[in-house]
Structures
1.
Amino acid sequence: MMEAGWVEAPAVAEPEPEPAQLGPQVVLRRQRRVWLVLGGLFVAMLLCAALGLGLGAMRIPLVRVLEVLLHGIGVQVGPIGLEEQGVVLSIRLPRVLLGLSVGAALGVSGALMQGLFRNPLADPTLIGVSSGAALGAKTVIVLGASGGWALSRDVALPACAFLGALVVTWLVWGLARRDGRTEVPTLLLAGIAINALAMSLQGVLALLASDAQLRTLTFWTLGSLGGATYDAVWLSLPGVLLVLLGAPFLAGSLNALLLGEGDARCLGVDVERLKRVTVLLTALAVGSAVAFSGNVGFVGLLAPHLLRMAFGPDHRLLLIGSALLGAIVLTLADLASRTLLAPQEIPLGILTAALGAPFFLWLLRRRGRRGGF
Amino acid sequence: MLELRDVCVKVGQRSLLSAVSFRMAPGEVLGVVGPNGAGKTTLLRVLTGELAPRPGSVSLGGQELARLSVATLARQRAYLPQQAALDFGFSVLEVVLLGRTPHRSRESQRVSLEIATRAMELADVTPLAARPYLELSGGEQQRVQLARVLTQIWDGAAGQSRLLLLDEPTASLDLRHQHSTLSSVRRFAASGVTVVVVLHDLALAAQYADRLLLLEAGRIVGFGKTRDVLTLDNVSRTFGVTSHHVTVAETGLSLIVASGPAPRASKGDSP
Amino acid sequence: MTMRQTRRTARPWRRSRSWLVLLFTLVGTACNNEPGQTQPSAEAPAVAVGSGEPAPPRIVSAGGNVTEVLYALGVGSALVGADTTSTYPLETAALPKVGYLRRLSAEGVVSLRPTLFLGTDDAEPHAALDQLRGAGIRVELVDDAPGLEATYARVLAIGSIVGRRDAAEALVHDMRAAAAPVLAGVATAATRPSVLFIYARGQGSAQVAGEKTAAQIMIELAGGKNAVSGFEGFRPLTAEAVVQAEPDFYLMPALGLQSLGNVEGLLAQPGIAQTAAGRARRVIAIEDSTLLGFGPRVALALRELAARLHPELAPSLGSAPAAASELR
């Protein structure tokens, strides 16, 4: 404070007595906190995966699940029923793995979008990724049946969905660019315009669709992990892992971006490059995920929000934390989809919406207390 | 050393700055004053490197701003804008630590924290360190932002020039903090930083700046010591007010105050 | 300030701790499951063995006509689950459903512990079928082609699969016998009225059937001809198409007609009221799965349709079934 005895020159030349409150303990606490939270989320994710393997239309005790898993990697632990092995290894394991991959992709993309738009209501649909994927998939569903497609539909559908996601995002990005710069409000408007266009094209496809195709379109829109195979897992994983490895490098820049573009630029952040990379990573992650699961909403909104409410907006925690929490949410939602109306499955998108909508109503009511997010 | 040569900035037909030239040594505080629309904020934006002068040049420590990379510039130049728009729930400490962003790849968290701590003391926000930024008053938030920009250029490599730009840093501050902030800025300057601060309060400018730059309609009306620039004539003409000298008997502090807008017809005359 | 900071970090910890407790409880519950709890809940009655082939005690079927054949062959009591397109006979309502034909739930099927999964070849997703095989369930698919011969072949194939070949052959014999007078009768018909088949599910979704559709095959078998041609599959209904077609009759599945608002609703569709058939209300409605399913009741639909198209032949087409009332 400004008492007598205060040194006139700024305290650069000489070491000053550190105030008691801030010090090495705070540093360690901060560093440790990030790792503890991420570690805790990781463990929770593994637990949810275990639940997903054990529960469902058929209950398999956790011990048996572990035995089957060990058996699967070649370790003999005891007699294994063919049925249980089939359920765990052929049906549930790829499904749980795909769920983790899709959930992580949606979670991290939601965090990236919310950082880019500096708005906690942002999610990947804004830049057209989801409608692009939907357009690609629906094109295959409606037109692929009659045309002479060389590839089987099981390959063509995810491939076109992924391509659709990338192409539409590229369109949105291109529309929003001017003179080498992309203004965020323009990006938003371009996204709205292209989304509307994609919707109308999807409407045309729905018009051309036969009854059976229409049902398939609807199911795709609602999302499901029912088609999970190991192939799907291996195909969706690279894109997702790439994004998970790359995103943490953006954390510091995204934090600075929260101050505003001008201030971020003053702090040395290449804002245009940051925007470009963020949009690209989002398209890659969501495209890889949605190609195999169909449209699943709200996860990209929920996960970063929950984390921000509990731990603050620091992207060093938020990006990977959202990925982990997204994986948890999706795995649990998929578990519910397989269990609530067994032996039928409720489409995944319905459950995530059923979770998401009340959450947002609650969030709206809570917001006034602190202001901001 | 900060040097401007013939800096001109035009937008369409309008000239925002014309033929602005001056030089400041490290450790000096330059107060930029002038009426609204005189080009003060534009000048700051040229100094941040955001606006490129056409024609003209700005150089810091002998190097042209335009030639410096974004990353290098970020380590040498910090800018505190008039309005800070932060709508996310960072704590004060986290906001201040954001100032170390350009240095984060070169230093440990411990060092960043030490620097942030010292900057917070200088800006008088240490007691607020753990509080959520959004819960603070406007003035407190402004001081936190000041701490952040101080953190950004707290240290410099030997021989490297540092530049601190402040756009009306006292706008929402109470009387005490107006003075303590500018006093801290002076102390910070003494460590070898060139400071350019835009102020609307002539008294504060006179008291805390080593030299003043008086702008009107993009042109320099006066540059130099306070008593040379803030003459009754200059103030009356530039600001369009009826002005008077006031001297404080105890300290000999001499101020110029305005008693009212100048009558239209006599805008060109001295009272 | 330290107090505040520790409090802030403690709160999220407390929250995540309670989540972890919840998860551990759930895991513990899963762990405590006795293996006995995964036994099948219902005992399946043994099915009489025929032709020396093994009798599958538990069947899950996919495809409405497949399910119907299974009941017709007398193995309905072995069914433990079916897809949502299996709606006939009424007993199917009590069966657990494993999803839509093209969106089967592999886990759902497995949880019913079937020994046989029997479906049409457009059952999807293919991955699910592979997963069923991986779980040790026998998966058999039958061709879903339309047409009378294809239907007879399908019935025989299903019969072989479930070990009821004799019953299948008897059923096919009955089906042929029921269809024969209809086919003979329409062969002598003087005219081939044109029929426009309309498919609808509620307002705004009406489509007409072109070539290579089950509807066209039924129309032709009943001695009529498709009022539209030149395209395959379905096309949206337009006024121009309808007026140009100027059909002698309109044919609709019963539920589809109901979804439009019955005949009045159909007349409100574009172009219909401008045609002679529309004004004269020459609308034939037949129950959905009977008409298009190509299952055991195909002869009933044929007879009904032929009788409407060729009223003069009606007496000679075979005994009017008491089950005609079923067709509405």
2.
Amino acid sequence: MNKDISQNWIASWQKRHSSEVSDVKETLYLIKKSPMTMIGLAIILILVTVAIFAPYIAPYNPVTMNLDKRLAPPSKDNLLGTDELGRDILSRIIYGAGVALKIIFIVLAIDLPLGILLGLMAGYFGGWIDEIIMRIADIFMAFPRLILAMAIGTALGPNLKNTMIAIALTMWPVYARLARGETLSIKERTFIEAERALGSSNLKILVFNILPLCFSTLIVRATLDMGNIIRIAAGMSFLGLGAQPPTPDWGLMISSGRNFLINQWWVPTFPGFAILLTVFGFNLLGDGIRDISDPHLRRGKK
Amino acid sequence: MVQELLLEIKDLEVNFHTYRGIVKALNGVNLKINKGEFFGLVGETGCGKSVTASAVLNLVQNPGQIEKGEIIFQGKDLLKMDKEEIREDIRGKEITMIMQYPIAALNPVINNGEQISEALIANKNMTKDEAKKRTIELLRDVNIPEPEKIARQYPHQLSGGMAQRVMIAMMLSTKPSLLIADEPTTALDVSIQAQVLNLLKDLVVKHNTTIWLITHDLSVVAETCDRVGVMYAGDMVEIGEVNQIINNPRHPYTKGLINAIPSEQSRELIEIKGSVPDLVEPPSGCRFHPRCNYAKPICKKAKPQMLEIEKNHFAACFLYGKQREE
């Protein structure tokens, strides 16, 4: 009896949400059809899993030194070898995934809302609001991103938190410009006019009509930027401006290991691979999302 | 039958301030629409039909500016009202508008049902469930088969005719006193056109809505409207009941328009020579005189006034009335 009711409920839920269900199904189908997206997705999923379960996966503590085993080559005990202080490189890479993801997450958590807010306002209201926001954005865009991030990072003082602030400050103009551009074209479309004819307020038009249409572009851009964020963060750590020892940060690991590249190649090489693979994964995923969200590729079933 | 006045536009002037100069889009337009009437406004592209409608909704966009005139709706002058007040109390509640390209006029990322219930929640303070129920009723009212299914679909899954019905349902959701239909059938094919027009006609009767139809297609007007206004280059040139305009046009421009419809007797197309004037430097006097076969010296000098030629039939031309002698 109970089973009947629950089955009925499931059936009615499926019926009510048929268009959403078929949408999700189609998305999965499109992902399956694109091997590159699958690879990117797999890399990122592995990265996230590793970062979450780092304490259970990592064979050693990432910061415990063991001076007896300095610079040991890859072996059964230390799969990827040890660094100049005898710390297990594999464990440090595993913990480093969490650091990298934290940087990405916080930078985007600052930049996406900020960029969207400013971009929507600039695009929708135009005039002097647009002028002020976009000229400030131009100032930020006038400097090479890494140089600007370094300058801000140095001024704020070298640590991980300031690195994230520095990267966030250099990236928001990208999102503001994108959101503005999308808004400019969307606000001229007929359904916005129709919405006005229905007496909707500016706030409602912005939140319910323009914002959802900006999302797909911004999400794709953000996914592609995740790789960039890791690269910049690694670059800043490499220069000593980002994470400070003994944080298991990939950039920092390359930086401190670069002296050993000739004789103990494993020390800087494996963290380098970690960065390479992660950036690669994010780029593949970003490309994939762009293709999948392209309406020309979708052919919604009734 | 005593007609109750719903909307009166008096001497409305709208200019667009552009780089090339001031475009005099509306040059003193006068117009009356009665309650429960199906009013048609005809004219070529760019003659100011749509601008007139946007002026009524207070949606004239930069660089356009309403220079002078009065728009009296239900006894109140809309041009003297606060902009926010118009948005909250008039637009969407009392006057709504349906557009030319129905699919473009629906938000592509929100499903059809939600677009309508959204309007109901915002304008009628309904709860979500009430709005959903009412949405289905509205969709059924505009003759949509399987309204529950259509409500779940997205605009791109609809045909043009279906989308226009959804649009009509959405704009009727708040029971407006005046529904402006800006070229509602231009983007639809002919058989669907007839269906949509008949639907609009039914609505006039059923909901006691007043419909103001804007079109460039005289045949559409002939089929549906009670009264017709003809516009040319920002001027109202002729207003009258539909059979007066179609069978006995008085203004040379209206005559030209009607002659341009191919008939059974002559397959030849008779065009109105010349083209629509540049409104940055409109012709002096009567704006139609450079293209008019009956133009007289006076036409270049003065603007003709609207004159009642027969009952309820007005034309602005020096061929008629006292103006003729000069």
